[in-house]
Specification:
Layout: H1 4-7, E1 8-11, H2 15-24, E2 26-31, H3 37-48, E3 52-60, E4 64-67, E5 70-73, E6 77-84
Length: 96
């Protein structure tokens, strides 16, 4: 199994993500493509010392891009929406 810090690549700070955090106590992470739900749950619990209620994952397909006559696509990636148990709180360093 991969190192716990490698599974969670970074938290995603989007407007929708911050609303989910405030209203439903959910945190969104960009995770390694090979990570499964139980590995993500274990990693969040060990790294941040919080209790996780549920984990939902979404595979995001890369977009097609072109630059002049060259065509390609951005990388595929995986997003995890982690729901914390009632009473749990996770403070990540958001911008001002």
């Amino acid at each position: 199994m991969a190192d716990m810090h490698d599974l969670l690549q970074r938290p995603l700070y989007t407007e929708k993500g911050l609303n989910l955090k405030e209203k439903e106590n959910k945190i969104i992470f960009k995770v390694k493509k090979s990570a499964n739900k139980s590995q993500i749950k274990k990693a969040v619990e060990q790294i941040f010392k919080v209790k996780v209620a549920d984990v939902n994952t979404i595979n995001i397909l890369g977009k097609k891009k072109s630059l002049g006559r060259f065509a390609g696509k951005t990388s595929d990636w995986k997003k995890a929406i982690v729901t914390l148990k009632k009473g749990e709180k996770l403070e990540l360093g958001e911008g001002s």
